[in-house]
Amino acid sequence: MVLLLLCLLNISDLPPAARSVLDREYPGWAPAPIAAQVREWFGQQRFGHEPNLAHFDFDHDGTPDWALEILAGNREQTVVLLARGSSYDLQLLADDPPDPFTYLLVNRSGDREFNFETLQWFHHARNTLQLMYFDRPPLLFEWSGGKFKKKVMPNDEESDPK
Fold it and tell me: In the chain, how many domains are there?
């Protein structure tokens, strides 16, 4: 899997307007904790973004957006803050129990990945965000038709080559 190398970020890099949206919608939110093993793997792979934070143009409008995994109300929320001029539009992508082995991956349009259902390589048609789980297939989110579309991505443990 080829992933876009982004500059290293941390939660303090969130613009005040993005932080304000999170504070309003999720009072008391905090960055989702990430297991040390996941952080170490990210460093080895040099993905360029944090496992729970990415800055990338997900809606293809030429302006980078923010994807985050946060803790709010004893739940792990995966959200994207779409840049809209000087403000941000919040999109909730997933609501899960907290899990430090859950993390984000970013794919650029044209990146190559293997489909374990069809057993063939494919190229991402659009910029995508993947939510990776330890104990179940990842979710892929792709901006299309003015909204995020969710797809379950089978991996090598869930595929049946028959």
Answer: 1
